[in-house]
Amino acid sequence: MCGLTSEILVVLAASNKVMNARATIETAPLQAQLGYTFKKLELLNQALTHRSHSKKNNERLEFLGDSILNCVVAEMLYERYSDLDEGDLSRVRANLVKQQALYEIAQTLSLSDYLRLGEGELKSGGFRRPSILADTLEAVTGAIFLDGGFDAAKTCLRKLYSIILAHVDPKTLGKDDKTLLQECLQSYQLPLPTYNVTGTSGAAHNQQFEVECLIPNLKVAVKGEGASRRAAEQAAAKLALIAAQKALPQELGKPKKTRSAKKKAAKKVATEEQLNLKLKG
User: Do domains 8-165 and 177-252 have the same CATH topology?
Assistant: First the structure.
């Protein structure tokens, strides 16, 4: 019995050691990566503290950081993509501030090395959980805002997003494969593809669907599989888009302008003509 008690004490001591180490973790490398040095280090420590760790956690900072992040990313997109309308700007922003995008940024900062988690979250691998890392990045943004003001938070976010934006295609980001295929065919004024369920397999609670995507004009016929009809259609559309892009240059040449593109071009010409008349007058 004494042996068992001593083993429990050893485990508890080890657990406390981990918790204490997390409480006093060195954040200088993180601040260097952020490009910002905190005047009030307690704000950064709070931003790195999950609710499982203590009552003074990062949830309120997360709320604040979310709003700042949306604002800064919106401004960056407005400046960078002058040809995008409101709908496209909203779509791109939504994909740049969603959990997966924030999680990927958090990974580049190695945020998991600085998290302060409760014992339960530590054991369950909370430091690897995308939702926790994404929320922490928002909280850190909120902490920078409170410590150094909006411009400091803006500078930090611009640095973090500059690399991402360099590799973003605003025309396709956030669009699913069916939408991309549809837009591709419409740009060549081709009929939309058809989707047919060609098979199902598995038990009722765990079915697998097979869907065929047909584009007769391009002689494209491919099949995709998924856990739902929608997922199978998306899988088929992805393959069909690849096949269509290979076939289109040979079959039809350059894409034709859509009605909206023609309207924009006509409006641009009209505006330029009006400007020239004013200058001559």
Answer: no
Neighbouring CB atoms inside 10 A of 39's CB total: 8
Rounded Cα–Cα distance for residues 54 and 64 (Å)? 19
Q: How confident is the model at residue 175 (pLDDT cuts 50, 70, 90)?
A: confident
H-type helices in 51-97, by residue range?
59-80, 86-96
Domain ranges of the chain: 8-165, 177-252
Q: Where are the beta strands (DSSP E) in the chain?
A: 194-201, 208-215, 220-226
Q: Assign 87 to helix, strand or coil.
A: helix
Q: What is the pTM of this model?
A: 0.65
> How many angstroms from the chain centroid is the CA of residue 106?
12
Beta-sheet strands, E only, within 81-187: none
- Size (the chain), residues: 281
With H, G, I as helix, E, B as strand and everything else as coil, classify residue 43: helix
Q: Say if CB 175 and CB 88 are below 8 A apart.
A: no
pLDDT range class, residue 68, cuts 50, 70, 90: very high
8-165 is classed CATH 1.10.1520.10: yes
CB 155 within 8 A of CB 70: no
Burial-class residue 89 by CB neighbours within 10 Å (0-12, 13-18, 19+): middle
Q: Residues with catalytic annotation?
A: 66, 138
Does the pLDDT of residue 178 top 70, yes or no? yes
CATH code of 177-252, in short, is 3.30.160.20
Q: Cβ(220)–Cβ(247) under 8 Å?
A: yes
* Nearest in space to 64 (alpha carbons), one of 153, 142, 9: 142
Single-letter amino acid code for the residue at 205? H
CA gap 160, 108 in Å, rounded: 9
> Mean pLDDT of all residues in the chain?
84
Q: Do residues 116 and 23 make contact, with C-beta atoms less than 8 angstroms apart? A: yes
Q: In the numeric block, which tokens belong to residue 167? A: 């590799």
